[in-house]
């Protein structure tokens, strides 16, 4: 396995046909803050996060995942990773250099095994952020991202081999076999998970809330506003985190969560959990059942951006 050079998840960038509606959703009821906007591109931050932004929206004809961005500790690590990927036959989109987005920095982009655009950067200026107050039900930070892959095992092995991800846990189903791998780049149980899906697509983006009360208040706010709920509220077994999944206006699944498990990496061994068991899907027993409809809603539309780099 490759040495771990990634430090954390920075942001997830989406291309959206109805740009204004999406911007109203994320900068409104979802609770992010628009920090910059220019020519059909907006950058949205979480008030509690030092990241310059955690979601980027771009106006486009086709809905797609533009990219997933990760941090590295230094420009030297960025260069090392680029050299390793190139030597390993990974297709680079750009060479390491200046990053022209809020906060600047030094980074590059490349395609993963399924054709998603991945960005890695270092030396990005920290954003002035603040403590989220009690009962303030807005996201503190970006928690994790989950992707759908038609070849679960191959995608897992690619991220382990090329980017140094480690397996935390696996979900298994008696009818499907292995269904999801939770992958980490730190002591956080997962910053990414890979789900078995019928096509390459975004499964969901997860946003961390201050605590249980703020998580429930945010969940209730969206329910009262009539935002389509996919699944929840509940508490997962793998990762031990809470979950409430909703659809944004274009059918991307977004999650409020909190209390994601922190692991002792020296002693942790991956588990295989049977998620046909009720307690594995939801420890609390408060969420709606995981039926076929819920599963299909998480498949999302096939990503039209595979092996096509975003224009910006």
Automatic annotation (TrEMBL):
InterPro entries: Glyas_Bleomycin-R_OHBP_Dase (IPR029068), Glyas_Fos-R_dOase_dom (IPR004360), MMCE/EMCE_epimerase (IPR051785), VOC_core (IPR037523)
Keywords associated with the record: Metal-binding
The protein's name: Oxidoreductase
PROSITE patterns: VOC (PS51819)
Species for this entry: Streptomyces capitiformicae
MF-aspect GO terms: metal ion binding; methylmalonyl-CoA epimerase activity
Entries under Gene3D superfamilies matching the protein: 2,3-Dihydroxybiphenyl 1,2-Dioxygenase, domain 1
Pfam families: Glyoxalase
GO biological process, one term: L-methylmalonyl-CoA metabolic process
Boundaries of every VOC domain copy: 8-123, 141-259
């Amino acid at each position: 396995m490759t040495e771990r050079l990634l430090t954390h998840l920075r942001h997830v960038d989406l291309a959206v046909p109805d740009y204004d509606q999406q911007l109203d959703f994320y900068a409104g009821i979802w609770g992010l803050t628009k920090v910059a906007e220019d020519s059909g591109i907006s950058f949205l931050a979480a008030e509690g996060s030092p990241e310059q932004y955690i979601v980027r929206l771009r106006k486009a004809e086709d809905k797609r995942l533009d990219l997933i961005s990760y941090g590295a500790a230094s420009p030297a690590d960025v260069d090392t990773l680029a050299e390793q990927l190139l030597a390993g036959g990974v297709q680079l989109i750009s060479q390491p250099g200046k990053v022209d987005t809020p906060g600047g920095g030094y980074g590059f982009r490349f395609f993963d095994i399924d054709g998603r655009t991945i960005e890695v950067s270092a030396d990005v200026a920290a954003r002035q952020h603040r403590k989220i107050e009690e009962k303030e039900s807005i996201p503190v930070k970006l928690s994790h991202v989950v992707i759908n892959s038609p070849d679960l095992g191959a995608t897992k092995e690619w991220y382990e081999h090329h980017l140094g991800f480690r397996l935390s846990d696996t979900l298994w189903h008696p009818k499907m076999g292995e269904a999801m791998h939770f992958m980490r780049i730190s002591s956080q149980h997962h910053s990414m998970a890979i789900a078995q899906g019928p096509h390459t697509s975004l499964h969901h983006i997860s946003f961390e809330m201050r605590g249980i009360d703020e998580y429930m208040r945010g969940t209730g706010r969206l329910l009262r506003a009539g935002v389509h709920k996919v699944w929840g509220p509940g508490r997962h077994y793998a990762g031990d985190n809470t979950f409430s999944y909703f659809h944004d206006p274009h059918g991307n699944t977004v999650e409020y969560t909190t209390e994601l498990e922190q692991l002792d990496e020296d002693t942790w061994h991956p588990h295989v959990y049977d998620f046909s068991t009720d307690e594995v899907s939801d420890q609390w027993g408060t969420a709606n059942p995981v039926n076929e409809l819920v599963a299909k809603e998480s498949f999302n539309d096939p990503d039209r951006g595979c092996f096509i780099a975003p224009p910006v």
